[in-house]
Design brief:
With about 130 residues, the chain is α+β, with helices and mostly antiparallel strands. Helices cover about 35% and strands about 20% of the residues. The chain has one domain: GTP Cyclohydrolase I, domain 2 (2-Layer Sandwich). It starts with 17 loop residues before the first strand and ends with a helix.
């Protein structure tokens, strides 16, 4: 009698790198730190242009927690539409005495992805 066991197929699985970028000079955000994280194999050459363009095109002021939630969610959605091969996207904003995070994909579904993201963000505060 042969007993079959299930296993996760690793052969052929692509491992995309996590990239985290910190922005403190976005127009309409007045120096408020914004972290953009993305797990993807896509070319990220235009990431800065996309983030700056999104911030520059805001049609509302950022003065309430809800405004920052809309900003983070909208930027996450925009990035997910542009980077089709993305496995996870996170936008984390730190307005005065608050933190607002919008997570998509692997960041929403996998604890270890979130742990790595927040560890990197914690490290980047000191750079």
């Amino acid at each position: 009698m042969v007993i079959e066991t299930q296993s996760t197929k690793i052969i052929g699985k692509e491992y995309s790198p996590l990239t985290v970028r910190k922005y403190t000079n976005l127009r309409n955000l007045n120096g408020i730190p914004v972290f953009v994280a993305i797990i993807t194999d896509d070319n990220l050459e235009g990431l800065d242009d996309i983030v700056h363009s999104y911030a520059n095109g805001l049609q509302y002021s950022l003065s309430t927690i809800q405004d920052f939630r809309r900003f983070a969610g909208g930027l996450t959605e925009t990035l997910s539409q542009i980077y089709k091969r993305a496995e996870g996207i996170a936008v984390v904003v730190f307005p005065d005495k608050a933190a607002v995070a919008s997570l998509w994909g692997d960041f929403m579904n996998h604890l270890h992805c979130r742990m790595e993201l927040y560890f990197i963000i914690n490290t980047m505060w000191h750079l």
